[in-house]
Structure formats: C-alpha cells, structure tokens
Amino acid sequence: MDRRTLPDYLKAATPNPLTNRAPWYKNTAPSYAGIFLSVPFMAGMAGALQYGSLWAGIVGLVLGALFCFLLYYVPGILGQRTGMPLYVIGASTFGTQGAILMPGLLMGVLQIGWHAVFTTAAASFFMQAIGSTAGPNTGSFWVVCAVWGLALAFVGAVGIRWLGALSSWLPILPLITIIVAGLSNASGIEKFNVQGLSAAGGVVPLLGLGAFAALQAAAGFFASAGAAGADFTLNSRDRKDVVLGGFFGITVAAVVAGFFALLTVAGALGNDPQLAVQAGLGTPGLDVNKAFISSIGAVGGLSKVMFWVFVIACICPTGFCAFLAANTFSTMFPKLPR
Predict the structure, then answer these.
(1) pLDDT of the residue at 49
(2) Which regions of the chain does DSSP assign to beta strands (E)?
(3) Full-prediction pTM beyond 0.70?
(4) Taking burial as the number of CB atoms within 10 A of a residue's CB, which of 115, 171, 284, 296 is the most buried?
C-alpha cells in the first residue's frame, strides 16, 4: 500500500526499537499487577460471595485469572513482534478507517468509563478515611469525585512519567494491606455461611454459579486491559518476556489480590452478618464497593490507615485511564489537543 494514502495516525506510527525495551519485571508485570491490586477488582470479588461459598469464589478466581492470561496473550505477542501499539495492530484487522472506531475510539471511550470507576472508588475510600458518612448522590461526595477526576485526568494527559515512576513500587502498599486485612478477618471465615445468608437474603448457594461469578468478575474487569496487551508488550524484548510478564503480572497478581479480597469480605461477613444486610448481599441491589469498604472497616484499629492506602492506590490506575484515553483520541484525531 502506498504510504501516502495512509491516515495520519498510521503515517506517524513507528515501531518501538529493541534498544528501548526491558525485561518483563521492569514493565509488563508491575504495570498489570498494579491494575489487579486496585479497589474495583478486589471489591468485585464480593459478587462471588453473592452466589456461592468462599471455595466457589476461589475456584472461579483461579479459572478467571487463567482466562485473563489468554485474553492478553495474542495481542501481547503481536505487540512484542511488531513493536506497535493496539491502534496500529487493529488496522490489520479492521482496516485503516475501521481501526479509528475499532479499537481506536472504542478503547478511548472505555477508558473514560474506567476513569469514572476508579474515581468513584477513590472518593468512597476518601470519605471513609476522613470519617465522613457522605456517600454517592451527596454533594460532598461528588465534589471529591470532581476534584479527583479532573486532577488525575490532567496528570494522565501531561504527567505520565510521574505515574510511571509511582507504578513501579506503589502496588506494594495495597498488596500488603489486603494481605493484612485478609488475615485479620480470617477468624470469621468459618462463620461465613452462604446457606444462612440464603435464608436471610436469597443467595443461591451453588458452587458452579459462585465460581462463574468470580470468573466473570475477573474477566469483565480485565477485558479492556487484556485487549490493550500490545500497548504493554511493545516494551518486551521477546516471547519469554510476554509470557512471564503476563503470568506474574496477570495470573499470579489476580489470584493473590482476589484470594485475600475474598478472605477479607467472607471473614468480615462471618463475624458480623449485619454487614451483608447493609451492603445488600443476597439481593439484586448488592453494592460490592460498600461490602468491600465495610470489610476493611471491620479490621479495627488499622482500618483508617488502610482506607488511605486504597485512596493512594487509586492514583496510578485513574491517571493511566486518562492517559490511554487522551492518547487514543489525540492519535486518531491529531488536531485534537491532549
């Protein structure tokens, strides 16, 4: 094809040279691990307890973590081999014009949605951290959302290097926090009785349904990040980096974060079944964020510190969503300012 007939976004595309690439443990693994060690993913595990036992959730989590690796592998290999981002690789499938919509603009819109999700999660923990009872649909809550969302949108658009530096070590904080929370609430795990909750709120105590709920929570959370695998692995040196980066950054990180999140929630609900009622567990109105936040609050004296840790943990994913959205729109429409 004559290069002169290509759209501007493809004319400007150049592969990432091998000299700019690094081992999997310096880029792919920590970047993906930071995604899983975030509030929306860990809170989503509460949904698995809506339909089954703790063991059902663990089974589904492991299957979901493996499925997430498969979602990532194909675009990941393409990114490593070509050194090109998703929107360029997408042109080989959807055509030069079709790639503007799929995956170009679609991914940009999805990232705006995830930016909102992470913003809401950060605001929820922030209100708890300052001791406020204000929740969604209150004025003060939305003021916090506006300040947080706009600030991180600006950082994501123009200060991605700051986020890159933070992402190399920041996920360690929520990892330590969720492990401590899971162990702290472990005494209530034996008391967590899905059959008992079923009698009170209509939970369906089926292993298969509970496992599927956990699998769905993992796969649904990761879908857009998996499709964008090429954007991560264009920094990988070879196939080994792609596999190891995905295995440890996706599969292992998802299992560890999800496992301790399940322990945290199940243990808290076992010690205080009233928390399940307040979060709407067993009803169509289940609020997974509320269930997760309440479970962190059940830890006791350390809960305030944990609230702040999860606020801080939302910084990088919120900013990265804004960066990816800005990158997509400015690439597809070069005249549009970031």
Answers:
(1) 86
(2) none
(3) yes
(4) 296
